Amino acid sequence: MLFLPLVLAAAGDVRPYLNTGPWYPSDPAQLQRMLDVFFNEPPPPEQGIAVRAIVAPHAGFQYSGRCAARAYRAIPPTQDIRRVILLGSSHRSGFYGACVDDHDAWATPLGAVAVDGDACRALARDRLFRTDRGVMRHEHALENQLPFLQQALAGREYRIIPILFGSLKNSDFSRMASAIRPLIDGRTLVVASSDLTHYGADFGYTPFHRDLAANLEKLDKGFIEPVLDLDFKRYFAYREKTAITACGFVPIGVLIRLFEKKGCRTSLAAYYRSGDLSGDYSTSVSYASLLFTEAATAAEAPDSLDRGEQRLLLELARSVLRGRFQGQPAPAGLEERFSGRPRLLRKSGVFVTLRKRGELRGCIGSIVGVEPLCRGVAANALNAAFADPRFPPLAERELDGVEIEISVMTPLLPVTDYRAIRLGTDGVVIRDGDAQAVFLPQVATETGWNLDEFLGRLCRKAGLERDAYRRSPAMKFFTFQAQVFSESEAGK
């Protein structure tokens, strides 16, 4: 069924759509069918986490449409989005700074989307911005994002802020981001529109002449990595070093400046080249879609355990171990015992770690919550002491010299790109067929491993080749955070 957005402008000053034909179908039904295919292709989207920003390509839909859709379809259907800031680069006009729009709405074959006129007028008062209808009217970088927005945000009331960039010197990226940042709140989505490498004689860019597919991927991934790391300095330096022809260099740079201090999670949703589709890399354009999503940690969660609850769980774990040596059965009635502590009764993944003189003496737990937290602590204290196959069973004489540490898990979240893993913050689960392994967040901090060493050792723990995390197409990554506390911290 043809979608018409809630913000349809029946009258007023509407920018007409100009980029049908070679870019996307002008027939509404045909365009809708194309979008439906893109948004329903496997694998299914990994939804549930609020999406704060997207990088998406803007080429002809038959080439880059699938790539763009992989980012847009990750937006949860329940996410409340009222404003979309569109960042693009001018392909037709040369100027310094940025242009904003003064139309009431922008049209596509699927309807018209309203413009946030107040926000555009506020930006236009800044010295780096201006209003120029001639520049905005003939540009495809922003227009080509609208059908994807209309599909992804169907049924939601939102307005767009179209911003088109010209050139920008290094020092003004932060200045530009400072002007835009006040418009971003919890109901705002930011979209940076860009294709990546334009390779070939037609584009005047041939930095290599052999192994085109492999070298293109290497070049593109070198560009993508500092974006995922939100590292503007390295991002800007890479462009200076390679002269990579990513047309959205400026809007992506502004996007990095907007989010570099927000602690969001970044991931690569899709990547391929037009040469992958045509088989001809001598003239090829690369496409990637990236996600900037909400990143909450256990320490930030409003229902984290307080100091009193931490002490109760640590005391429970030690009493269970002491009771085993005294011949007592595992404790019963824990739910009644902790009935006034609802956080200790929720189903949470939990690990119990034993350390002797700072060295690991046992560690067992469950990533996924299958029983009340208090019961999980009691069971895993016994498992860590007596069922960890790496160590002999704990002896009674060792008990007083053992320190107990408890790690309470947040739910698992899928990650599409392992480079988005935050060492020291994220625990990681890998799955490849029947093989599986987990490292807690503190492993990276305690060992000092970099990401390659961390994931390589995790693969070996799962019984896989060390580089399986890079080579196996079936490898799945999940992250979690943990609230970690020990007897020495809580006051034994």
Shape-level CATH architecture of the largest domain:
3-Layer(aba) Sandwich
The CATH topology of the largest domain is Protocatechuate 4,5-dioxygenase, Chain B
Q: What's the helical proportion of residues? A: 25-40%
| Total of DSSP H or I helical runs spanning 4+ residues | 18
In total, the number of strands is 20
Structural class label? alpha+beta
The CATH superfamily of the largest domain is identified as: LigB-like
The main sheet comes to: 9 strands, mixed
How much is the average pLDDT?
90
Write the layout of secondary structure elements.
Blueprint: E1 14-15, H1 28-40, E2 51-56, H2 61-72, E3 83-89, E4 98-100, E5 105-108, E6 111-114, H3 117-124, E7 129-131, H4 133-137, H5 140-143, H6 146-152, E8 159-165, H7 170-180, E9 188-193, E10 198-199, H8 212-228, H9 232-242, H10 249-259, E11 265-273, H11 274-278, E12 284-293, H12 307-325, H13 334-337, E13 350-356, E14 359-366, H14 373-386, E15 402-409, E16 413-415, E17 427-432, E18 435-439, H15 442-447, H16 451-461, H17 468-471, E19 476-480, E20 482-486, H18 487-490
Parallel strand pairs: 1-5, 2-9, 3-8, 3-9, 4-7
Antiparallel strand pairs: 2-12, 4-8, 5-6, 10-12, 11-12, 13-14, 13-15, 15-20, 16-19, 17-18, 17-19
Helix pairs in contact: 7-10, 8-9, 9-10, 12-14
Structure description:
The protein has 492 residues and is of the alpha+beta class. The protein has helices spanning 28-40, 61-72, 117-124, 133-137, 140-143, 146-152, 170-180, 212-228, 232-242, 249-259, 274-278, 307-325, 334-337, 373-386, 442-447, 451-461, 468-471, 487-490, and strands at residues 14-15, 51-56, 83-89, 98-100, 105-108, 111-114, 129-131, 159-165, 188-193, 198-199, 265-273, 284-293, 350-356, 359-366, 402-409, 413-415, 427-432, 435-439, 476-480, 482-486. It has 2 domains: 14-295, Protocatechuate 4,5-dioxygenase, Chain B (3-Layer(aba) Sandwich), CATH 3.40.830.10; 298-492, Glycoprotein, Type 4 Pilin, CATH 3.30.700.20. It contains 18 helices and 20 strands. Strands 2, 3, 4, 7, 8, 9, 10, 11 and 12 form a 9-stranded mixed sheet that branches. A hairpin with a 2-residue loop joins β17 (427-432) and β18. α8 (212-228) runs antiparallel to α9 (232-242), α9 runs antiparallel to α10 (249-259) and α12 (307-325) packs across α14 (373-386). It is elongated and about 85 Å long.
